[in-house]
Each structure stands twice: as C-alpha cells, then as structure tokens.
Amino acid sequence: MDKGFAPIQATSKSKSGLNNNQPLSLEKLQGSLSHYFDDVPDPRVNRTKRHLIKDIIVIALLSTIAGGDGWEDMENYGLSKQQWLKEFLELPNGIPSDDTFRRVFEKLEPEILEQKLTLWIQQLIGPVIQQVIPIDGKTLRGSYDRENGIKNLHLVTVWATENRLVLGQVKVEGHSNKIIAIRCPLRIN
Fold first, then answer.
1. What distances in angstroms separate CA 71 from CA 24, 56, 61, 64, one per listed residue?
2. Is 109 helix (H, G, I), strand (E, B) or coil?
3. Boundary of a domain, candidates 74, 90, 125
C-alpha cells in the first residue's frame, strides 16, 4: 500500500534555510532593524527634531509587532522597554510622545517606509522563491454598511507559508478575478 510513497522526514529546517523552530536571535533583530531605517528622509523641520527618525520608526514597528495599535501604545511600549531599546537605539531625548509619533507618521512617505520594511523582512526571512505562496480571496463578513450603501470588504492575500508571513494584501471589488488582483501585492507588471 505504501509503494511509491516516501516517508515524510521531520526536519526543523525549511527550504529557505531558516530554522522555523528557533526564534529570531535578539542580536540579529537589533543589528538589522536599526540599520535599515538610517537613511529614511526626515520630513520634519530642523527645530522640531528632538528624536531621531530611525528611533521613532523602530519603536513604532516594534510596538506594532507586539500588538500595539495606536500612538499611545507606541509611547507606552517605548517607555516600558526603554532600557532594552537603549542597547541599539540612540534615544538622545528619551522616548517620543504619542503626539510625536502621530506627527512624524502623518508626514512620512508611505512608499519609502514600505520599501525599507520590505528590505528588512526579506533580509530576515530570506528568499521566498522556493516556497508555496498561496493566494486567497476572502470576504469580510459584517463589513458592510447598509445606511451608506457600502458592500462587504473583499481582500486578496498573498501568504508565505513557511514563514507564516503575509506578503501582500489588496482590497478588490466584489468577487473579481484573483489573477488581476494579485498584481498589486506581488508587484507584477
């Protein structure tokens, strides 16, 4: 009955060479994270630059990864992790306030930030070329608004299975063609 089938070998290594059972080392996170945001253009005027743009972005990113979802959460995360953050960030004037996070992110160019985040993630997870990349469309139930005539939200998501990472997500109209919809998150022309 098992003729033609090879037994599945349990291995902790993925095709990308990363060990899925091992957490990312703290040194690797610290070393890579702060350097990727060194050259992000600072949109603020010089007299308002009490905090480094790199410090603001890194604290905001780490806060978001930890489950924070607002400007106050970013400030609170920074205050609670200040000793650790000082190991790899400069923090010349301490932790920025929630208003500082808000003002900076209102002025930052989202395309530049997306590019830097993509480069950082690619460095962490390695190439995803040899992975299975599922593409899935979903309708978010309960996302409609009858009063304003807004229909349910439809999303197409691109997922790196081995890394358990969403590579891209785009809103689509109705039950449109997934092939056309994936061009945006995958940057296919």
1. 26, 11, 11, 10
2. coil
3. 125
Q: In the sheet where 153-160 sits, what is the strand order? A: 135-140, 153-160, 165-172
Q: Is 145 exposed, middle or buried (0-12, 13-18, 19+ CB in 10 A)?
A: exposed
Instruction: Please give the tally of structural domains in the chain.
Output: 2
Q: How many CB atoms lie within 10 A of CB 59?
A: 25
DSSP three-state, residue 40: coil
- Show Cβ contacts of residue 63 under 8 Å, excluding neighbours closer than 6 positions: 73, 74, 76, 77, 78
The closest of 64, 37, 56, 54 to 120, measured between CA atoms, is 37
How many alpha carbons lie under 13 Å from residue 139 in its C-beta half-sphere? 9
Q: Does one domain contain both 80 and 105?
A: yes
Tens digits of per-residue pLDDT, 105-156? 999 998 899 888 888 877 766 655 567 777 788 888 877 777 887 788 888 8
Q: 0.90 cut: is pTM over it? A: no
Let me know if residue 148 belongs to a domain.
yes
d(CA 141, CA 152): 6
| Type of residue at 64 | T
**Separation CA 21–CA 73 (nearest Å):** 29
